[in-house]
Give the backbone structure.
Amino acid sequence: SSVKNLPLKKRLCFLLKLVCLVSSVLVFCEFFIYYVVIFQCRWPEVKGGADVGQKETSTSVLKAIVLADTHLLGEIKGHWLDKLRREWQMERSFQTALWLLQPDLVFVLGDVFDEGKWSSPQAWADDVRRFRKMFRYPASTELVVVAGNHDVGFHYEMTAYKVNRFEKVFNFTSGKLIARKGINFVLVNSVAMEGDGCALCRSSEAKLAALSHKLNCSQQRPNHSDTRCSDVEKLPASAPILLQHYPLYRKSDAECSGEDSAPPEEKNIPFKEKYDVLSREASQKLLWWFHPRLVLSGHTHSACEVLHAGNVPEISVPSFSWRNRNNPSFIMASVTPTDFSLQKCFLPSESRVFAIYCAAGALLLILILAHFQLLTPPFYFAQRLISKHKA
């Protein structure tokens, strides 16, 4: 009866306040929080300019964002609500990062899709459409995508059809070189580095070997004579950066550290060659062919930094999807032909967003109870307890 007697104007005013509170929390958690978090990320400074002894300028530094394992859900295993939530999170993060950071290049290190290895032509077309909507980019930015095992299948599932449709959509080929601002980036289809002589593996390795020869000639390595390099196209004389999905061989993640490394219970689990990481043989081939100054990989969904052959750093980039981890991130790389510097940019933690929603829900409940006088004031409750005790 007390509720009915409330003036209509007062009830409408209270309802408006509740709507404003709910809307504010929703807009902050689903939109503005990405700006608040990513705004704190800064491009790392790099020492070396375009030429040795020349002062570095902003135009000589290439700015690249590196992310991995988006795993867009498919029609078989993906629930519509899970799709809606995860894709909105990744779209807002990516679009906010592009707007705030304005990179020259964006690299996606494989496993773009979760079901590319078995999706039908219709499902594949739908997945591609959704990816292009989420990861749209301006003309000033270039997007480069590398194949992963969920895109074309593990080696035993990989077929020419799956590889060709991926290459057609993303203009990707194993052994492809991207040279920007005098910097060489080498793209590797690590799924084809099985080493068993399959047709796709042979083709991929042949392209990589040919590209290795060109790069070594351009860098004038001692074992490449002038006669062997006389007819070879000259490329920028810069040690390349390797981009691939599988990490190079390592025993496990036991030596990895950081808040986004693998959980403690998983770190000591040995990696399986050709499944979790490349084989020893394939890893040695890539290191010997290209002598890279940096290797960037994905696949494990967790961060790790290791040194190969004593001087080649490899960074495993964590998953970009909240479905795979509570604290996704991406790498910000400032690169010149002679140097590079990396910085990690974390995205909003899902646990923090959930805590904000819970706190807002509790506050909303308290306001409703207080408004309708259903919340007993503490002093009145204590007075009733004392009266009962005396009685």
Q: What stands out?
A: The longest strand covers residues 329-335. The chain is about 40% helix and 15% strand. The chain has two domains: 8-40+350-385, 58-221+228-348. Confidence is low (pLDDT under 50) at residues 49-55.
